[in-house]
Amino acid sequence: NNKRWLTGRLGYAVLECLVMARNMYLVTFICVLGIYGLQLVEGTKDDKELVRKLSVEENPGCPVGESFCSNGTLIHIRSDSETDTIHFVWNFFGCPTLLLARTQLGANLSIDWTSFISGTSGSAVFDPPETLYTFGWSLTTIWTFLDEKDEVEMNKVNASGVFGHDTKNFYWAKDDKDSVVSEDLVKFSMIAKDYDGQTFGEEGYIKITVQVHSKEGYGTVLPYLRHNGNSSQVDISLNKIDLNNTMTPKTRIGLGYLLVQQVPNLTGDISVKDKIYVQKTKTLDDENSPGVFEMHSLRTPVFNSYDQSYLEWKPVSYTGIIRDIADSVDVHIYDLEDQSPIQLDDSFLWSFYGNNISTLIAQRANISFGTQGDGFFNATPHISWSYLAGYGPPPSDTVSMLVIMTLAVGLGIPAIIIIIAIIYLFTKKLSTPKDDLLLGR
């Protein structure tokens, strides 16, 4: 009878453990399925704008034989879907500038080059002129600042040690060896090797590399940003630069951007809800950028339920020409400052927006690079940083199948170990003879 009782109790215990195992696996399965389902939903929201077809023009319509056509570079990238066109107009006559515009399918960019070179407003238009949405930014300033106390952030140092260098005084030349042109990818690089007539030396340069893809994917260099057909990836590198002898062993580097957006029916005072804002969010994992669990962005307000634009980046930059996790330093974004749209007069944005300046909101964004104890810019001396500029909501980070499987294994193995331990303890306890239990009292 005792043996039968023990066998029954043992069987009941094993059955309980099996039920527990089933429940634990069910919970694990639901968690993993939930993550995968969230990924599919987010992916559906991001990818519904479909695959686009790319084409590119350099200095479109510039009269043959005119000398000013060789004094700078304007690159117009069209990204066509079945219903609309996203235009990425990159201008390097003066300040590096991006005009991002969404138009009806088939709209063309028309530039009056004589008026454009002379700085006349309204010299760049789309034909037909109606645009569905526009946004623009201009890299106006390279900052250098003296950080005597290694405080890292530009707004904490003595203002007398902060120097701004106007990017219109750089000469930007196209680096053709980096160019790629296809229906799926357009890539080009622009390099500046002198400032205001002063050369940086044989190894000194500022390089801007632009990539536009026809569909979603990840970048090929750290921090492997996720792009889609509505975005343009920008990689900027500063190497061994000396700007008007402002560089010291404790100098750090920063960038200044002027951002503009056209606000429908803008009248009177500008409200906070109409302004560009900084957003910092946590990401799902660090698979693509190890150790970085944040995403920072500059976002415009949403108009007409969907129309918005953004600049987005991981808050990490690199001090090596070949990017490596060990060479990473922080990226710092500061409070945005209201600006007058009249300051657009040194960029392509004036050529496009000048006749509609009353409908614009302009703000300045300053960004700097560095981490305490990194040895300042002079230690390497190099900084590389990547970000996305795009239309619509930014692409969401997703969890890869590898991470999902790792999560499943990570939850499943401990569950199996616990179940085996419980079965072992129940078995040992129930198989102990009653006489041994009595002797143990």
How does this model look, in words?
Required to protect lysosomal transporter MFSD1 from lysosomal proteolysis and for MFSD1 lysosomal localization. It contains five helices and 25 strands. The chain is α+β, with helices and mostly antiparallel strands and 441 residues long. It folds into two domains: 2-46 and 401-439, no CATH class; 51-144 and 171-391. Strand 3 (84-91) and strand 4 form a beta hairpin. Helix 1 (2-47) runs antiparallel to helix 4. Mean pLDDT is 84; it is low at 40-47 and 437-441.
How many H/I helical runs?
5
Question: How much of the polypeptide forms β-strand, as a percent range?
Answer: 35-45%
Total number of strands = 25
Order of helices and strands: HEEEEEHEEEEEEEEEEEEEEEEEEHEEHH
Weakly predicted, low-confidence segments: 40-47, 437-441
Pfam families: NCU-G1
Membrane topology: Single-pass type I membrane protein
Keywords: Glycoprotein, Lysosome, Membrane, Signal, Transmembrane, Transmembrane helix
Main location: membrane
List the helices and strands and how they pair.
Elements (H helix, E strand, L loop, with lengths): L1 H46 L5 E6 L15 E7 L3 E8 L5 E8 L3 E4 L1 H5 L6 E4 L5 E14 L15 E5 L3 E5 L5 E2 L3 E11 L2 E2 L5 E9 L3 E2 L7 E2 L3 E9 L11 E12 L14 E6 L11 E6 L9 E5 L2 E3 L9 E6 L3 E3 L8 H6 L6 E10 L12 E10 L9 H30 L3 H6 L2
Antiparallel strand pairs: 1-2, 2-3, 3-4, 4-7, 5-6, 7-8, 7-17, 9-11, 10-11, 11-12, 11-13, 13-16, 14-15, 16-25, 17-24, 18-19, 19-20, 20-25, 21-22, 22-24, 23-24
